[in-house]
Structures are given as C-alpha cells and as structure tokens.
Amino acid sequence: MEKKLNKRERYKAQLKPIDYYKDFESIDFESLGEGDRFYLQDFGIFNTDFLEDEFTIRIRIPGGRVTAEQFQSIAVIVDEYDLKIILTARSGIQLHNIEADDVLDIHKRINALGVSTWQSFGDNVRNIVTDAYDGRGKYSKIEVYPIVMAMNDYIIENPRYVGMLPRRVSVGISGNSTNVTSFFANDIYFGLAKKNGEFGFNVYMGGKNTEVARPADIFLKEDEVFNFFKAFVEAFYLHGSRYTRSKTRIFHMIEEHGMDSMRAHIQSEYKKDFESAGELILEKAKFSEFHELKDETFGFCYQTDCSRLNAKEIKEIAIFATEHRAEIRFGIDQNIYILGLKEPSSTLKSPTITDTILTCAGNLCPYAVWSIKDDTSYLPLEKINEHQIQVGFSGCAKGCGRHRHTDIGLIGLKTNNFGDTDGGARVFLGAQHTEGKSTARQLFSMVPFVHLNSVVSLVIKLFELSGYKGFEEYSADILNKYSEDFVSIWVLANLETNKSIGLERPQKEKNFEYEKELLRKEFPDLDFWQHVDEDFYPAISYLGKKLWTIEGEDPHYKPKVHRTNFR
C-alpha cells in the first residue's frame, strides 16, 4: 500500500512556508485555520485552536549570546504588552500571553533588534546551542561561536529549508572539555575530541529529549564542521521520512536504516571520506556561582526562577552588564551567565537556588497539565542544591525538561489512581548524562505531588549513605547495576518502614533471585511479599497504592468534580 504524506507535509506540498510569509502582514490572527498555525510556527509564532486567543513567540539566540541593548529592548516590549517571558532549554526566549491584535507588531519589533524569531518552532533547524563558557572558560579548547553563526546564517531564511525539513533538528556543539549541561539530547552533537594530537569534534546523532545521541564514528577538524553540517541537513532533507509524523526524527531514521546508512547519505553530500572518531575529551566538573575565566576575569551564574523572568529583572541584568562591560549569555540550563567581571562579586541576587533544575514551560504550553515551575516547590530544593543534583522536570511526555537526561527526572501528569488527588509526577533516576552513556530509568509511573518531597528526599538520603560525591557516579556504580523494579521496591520498602537502608554494589547484576534475597534480608515482615512471584511489579503497584492513596480530599489539589472512579 502506498504511504501517505503526513498532514504537515501535505500543507508544504500545497504552499511552501517561505511563500506563505509573503502575505504575512495581511494575516488575520483572530481567524486562523489549521494550515496557518502550521506555517506560523516556522516564523516563531505558536498558537492552538483550543487557545486561539493566546499566542507565543519564540526568539532564537544563537549560542545563547545576546547584547545588553537587545536584552533591555526585549524587556521594554515585555513591559509594554504585559507579557510573560521565560528562557528556553535551547538558550532562547519565549514570550507568552500575546493577544491576537499585538502579534504582528511584536513580531516586527523583535526581528528589528538583530535577533530572529525565524525557524524557532516547526520543521526547522532550531536554535543552535553551545556551552555558556564557550571560548572564555578555563575548560575551553576551541571557541565554536563562529561555527554556530555560520550554521545559523546558512539556515535562516534559506528558502530550501524554511519549514521544509521532515521534522525539527536540534544542534549542539561544544569546544569545552567540560560543560555546564549535557548536549547528548540533540539530534546532532559535535563534542570536543582529540586525534593525532589535534583538537576537533566527534559526531553524535539521533538524540532527543528521551534518547541519547549515538556515536557516528566520525572525527571533524574545526574547519570541517560547517561543511559537514550542510551535508547533514541536506541528507535529512532528501532522505528523512515524511510519513507517520511520530517517526520522522533523526532518531527514527537511524533506528530504521542504521547509522551506516545515515553516514552514507551525509557522505554523498559531503564529497569526502570521513575520519574515524578520536578520543572524546569530556569530564565532569562542578561550576560554582562564580567561575574564573581564561583572562582572569570572572563569570557569574544568575539563577533564574526556573527560567522565569520579569521586565524589571531583565533591565537590572542589562544595566549591570553594561556598567561592568560584561557579556550576557544564556545557558541551556535556563540560567543567565554574565562574563568578564573583574571581581567574583555581583550586586545581582539570584531569586532561587535552582541552578541544577531544568523545567519545561509548564502550563504556559498547551501540552502541559501543571505549572511545572511552581511544582518544583514539592522538591527538597536545598538538598538538591547542596549536592548539585541535576533534575529535569517536564510537563508532558514530550520531555522538554529533558527528564531522561538528568540524575532525577520528573513528568507532571494527571492521576486519579491514588484517591482524591489530581496530580502527580512520573519519576526517573540515574541517567549517565555527562558522556551520554544512558538515559534515566523509570522509578515510579506516578507519585502524587503531596508525596513527591518524601520520595525524592529518601532517594537523596540513600545517595548520601553511599558515600559517593556525585549522583551520576552513584547511579553508574550502584543504582544502574540493579534492575529497575528492584530499585523501585527498595525505595518503597524504605518508605513503608521509615528506614533509610542504602544499597551497595551488587555481587550479581540485575539478578532477580539475588535481588529478592537482599530484599528479604532487610524487609522480611512486610506484607508486599504475597505479591512477589516472578517479578516485583505487582508488589510495586500494591505498596505504592497502600502508601500514597489519599483518603478524603487532597489538601493541595481539589478537583472541580468529585471523582469516584479510581481506576
């Protein structure tokens, strides 16, 4: 049977996005059709049919670098139109709560600032990201910003590619030997590597918010990256799937045809043989509030309120940077970095202690159920900050909080499985994210929000008992050596008994009988044993409901209609 193009591809076949833009100023933003909403994403404008009076505009900030003047000008627009503003997990900016009558004016004013909204949504190469300390930090070996801008300029307003790729493409590149945050969630990542005594880049492909980019066994010299990027984009344009929408990412192309096929498509456009991969130069490091730079000045990390900003805050940051002749950069950790300070001090005070917590837009996005940024209040923030534990909090399974690429990952979801409670979080643990070795595994399919603090606090307590300094090392050496279900039941058994019994490295990895023996040794008298037969799953379900079912009304979330069906 002949395959049918997906709906978005059918719109592209009827009218290219670049041609749609020719009539941009005549668009009636109060009467949009489905096709309009598809096309407008290619120019940074997002709207849905069920929130038709609310618009979002996304601004791409290549490499996260913005001038103080640009930042302050954006603040003026935010103030004038009473907008909400957040930093994205791709070092960009999103403006929310835009009214239909104001979309065109705001769009024009933003694009006149020397930044662009183009291709920040839709089937495009999205904002290209790098590390906040690119070129200036003590770990920097190659400054990649010129490469980022070359790639960005090649894509922006290129009629062949504007909105015309099979699906979105996320690009990360870093010339640093250690990064503030991992880049392995990108469709393509150029990671610092060394071969024959020369620094360059290893290529990784097929990452996304829920998958790790895989090694392509390709080493590129600094001056080869841009041409490789062009070949990569063209290969995806020509050979990527345009059928089932849910299977059109680079990841699916590699899954279906293999990495060798992907390499062959790129090589056909690149016109040169590839060198095999070099040694990845990437180590884990902790970054403090102030970081000494190569030139003996300092960088200051301003921790945002889970990426939220206000106009007054932006203006203060812009004025401070101007007075100190410092640079402003956005990190993919949703924090703001001010580089070039003569002393490790700042009059700016971060509003929160959430520098290791990444959150999606939450209920500012139509796909998210909860205000994820507010729901971080359920977490033991001081402990998370003390141990610099990486946390990713997404509002839906799309995973914009990169919950599978962190030490502790969360998805906020609705649930009525635990009595009269309206919300909770799916919990993940143990990504080996620094070097992109593995994503986090699911600990619990759902924990009601009112119990989330106790669960995460216990997880951190068990980590503290292990003696490891970093949660990622603890995950690699201990947690991930046990089966997923065993770790779940172990945490539940500790919660049931109010104990904190830690785990040591197992003598047998992921062995059910061995794990059952360990569990029986510490928790012989608990009543979940009647549910343990060939696996732990029924016991997990039983004990979870026993511990977390709420009798009466949830004091935090009161549903509008009383629910009696708790399936």
Task: Describe the secondary structure blueprint for this structure.
Elements: H1 7-14, H2 17-20, H3 34-41, E1 45-46, E2 55-59, E3 65-66, H4 68-81, E4 84-87, E5 93-98, H5 103-111, H6 145-155, E6 171-174, E7 188-195, E8 198-205, E9 214-220, H7 225-239, H8 250-257, H9 259-270, E10 279-280, E11 290-292, E12 298-302, E13 308-309, H10 311-323, E14 327-330, E15 336-341, E16 357-359, H11 372-375, H12 381-386, E17 391-394, E18 408-414, E19 419-420, E20 423-429, E21 441-448, H13 449-466, H14 471-477, H15 484-497, H16 512-522, H17 537-548, E22 550-553
Parallel strand pairs: 6-7, 16-17, 17-18, 19-22
Antiparallel strand pairs: 1-2, 2-5, 3-14, 4-5, 4-13, 7-8, 7-10, 8-9, 11-12, 12-15, 14-15, 18-20, 20-21
Helix pairs in contact: 4-10, 6-7, 7-9, 8-9, 15-17
3D structure, described in words:
With 567 residues, this protein is α+β, with helices and mostly antiparallel strands. Among the domains are: 7-111, Alpha-Beta Complex (Sulfite Reductase Hemoprotein, domain 2), CATH 3.90.480.20; 376-389 and 415-436 and 444-553, no CATH class. It contains 17 helices and 22 strands. The strands form five sheets. The protein has a five-stranded antiparallel beta sheet with strand order 1-2-5-4-13. A hairpin with an 8-residue loop joins strand 1 (45-46) and strand 2 (55-59). Helix 6 (145-155) runs parallel beside helix 7 (225-239), helix 7 crosses helix 9 and helix 15 (484-497) runs parallel beside helix 17. The radius of gyration is 24 Å and the shape is globular. Mean pLDDT is 94; it is low at 556-567.
